[in-house]
Amino acid sequence: MQQEVVTVVSGLPRSGTSMMMKMLEAGGMPVLIDHIRTPDEDNPKGYYEFERVKQIEHDQAWLKDAKGKVVKMVAALLKHLPPGYQYKVVFMRRKMEEILASQRRMLARNNKPTDEIGDAKMAALFRRHLQIIEAWLQEQPNIDVLYVSYNETVQDPHTQAERLNQFLGDILDVRQMVNVVDPNLYRQQR
Asked: What sign results for the dihedral spanned by CA atoms 111, 113, 119, 123?
């Protein structure tokens, strides 16, 4: 059964999705990535992205290759998942002020403007976006969702790895998953 399921790691940008992909890979899950976006100062252990995901609204052919694997997808794209597949979504949550601080830092590092939208307005937009996505997910009969806190995962990786293992059918090496969580990369603590 697990070989027919597409596992998706999702959430807002800067919510811990790359860490989760690394955990699942370490636990023994095959990952669907293309190595186009390389590690940098913001994600020194890699982004774990697959570029074709960004075109899911028009290109869904790659999903057949995602069965039995895990792929990363930003939350806004989830609504384009076609109904012909079974999905398990690991949805990352993180304290909003940390997401905003991490994004601001990343934008500044890339010489992009950081003050076009204030934090309060951006937080409100993100919260509304999450409400819409989470309501949509709840209505999908072919999607099972596990919400995982980035903050709790860094503080207690073993408990969260056990939850993930149970959700994904008791197929993961929990010890290996725990070993890849690096508290030193938790740089925007609030």
From this structure: negative
Cα distance between residue 52 and residue 56, in whole Å: 7
pLDDT, one tens digit for every residue, the chain (190 residues): 567 899 999 999 889 999 999 999 999 999 999 988 765 576 656 678 899 999 999 999 999 999 999 999 999 999 999 999 999 999 999 988 888 877 767 655 556 655 667 778 888 888 999 999 999 999 999 999 999 999 999 999 999 999 999 999 999 999 999 999 976 655 455 5
Measured CA to CA, the distance from residue 52 to residue 37 in angstroms comes to 12
**Per-domain residue ranges for the chain?**
2-185
CATH superfamily of 2-185: P-loop containing nucleotide triphosphate hydrolases (3.40.50.300)
Residue type at position 182 = D
Strand partners, 7: 70, 88
What is the rounded CA–CA span in Å between residue 47 and residue 54?
14
Q: pTM of the predicted model, to two decimals?
A: 0.87
- Between the alpha carbon of residue 12 and those of residues 65, 84, 149, the distances in Å are 24, 25, 12
**Opening angle at CA 57, ends 52 and 59, nearest 5:** 45
DSSP state of 31: B
